[in-house]
Structure to design on (183 residues):
């Protein structure tokens, strides 16, 4: 009889036959510097008798915080039950205040830019990073006013839920035309 790697008392053979998901849970803890944490989920706990281990590499570049609601599947790994196919459903910072700022710079070729916002800068000590994936196919003109929320990772503040205000779309009257910045 082979025991599970974390004790739990269940043989490994039983793990293979147990449900693999998808499940819905919440980030219980996550250390961005070390690159790992745990998801708490009543359904998986009732099956595996432990929280689900999550690695930064399985998050596909999406930063997470304690309390974020996630959808995930599970697999057996050397660390025990591990999350895979993780998708953030709801950020825990949804009650966090929203900010209004200006798209200071955006490099389309590199896929990121920065939002300048005095209130956010006072709170975080720097401009807010905005990755292309947050904007999707929306092209916002440099200098445009935007409404956004912020999540934190080990490198600093990252814009989420970026919405252009007024005629902020690229090519709109009054906005600078959208163009990649020189490298």
């Amino acid at each position: 009889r082979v025991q599970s790697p974390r004790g739990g008392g269940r043989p490994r053979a039983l793990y293979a036959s147990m449900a693999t998901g998808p499940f819905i849970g919440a980030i219980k803890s996550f250390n961005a510097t070390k690159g790992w944490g745990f998801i708490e989920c009543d359904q998986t706990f009732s099956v595996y008798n432990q929280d689900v281990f999550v690695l930064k590499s399985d998050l596909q570049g999406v930063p997470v915080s304690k309390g974020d609601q996630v959808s995930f599947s599970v697999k057996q790994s050397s660390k025990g039950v591990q999350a895979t196919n993780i998708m953030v459903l709801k950020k825990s910072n949804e009650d966090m205040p929203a900010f209004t700022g200006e798209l200071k710079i955006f490099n389309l070729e590199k896929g990121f830019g920065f939002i300048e916002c005095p209130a956010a800068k006072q709170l975080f000590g720097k401009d807010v990073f905005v990755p292309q994936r947050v904007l999707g196919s929306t092209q916002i003109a440099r200098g445009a006013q935007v409404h956004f929320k912020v999540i934190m990772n080990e490198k600093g503040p990252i814009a989420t839920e970026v919405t252009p205000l007024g005629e902020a779309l690229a090519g709109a009257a009054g906005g600078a035309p959208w163009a990649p910045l020189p490298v």
Observations:
- The first strand starts at residue 3 and ends at 4.
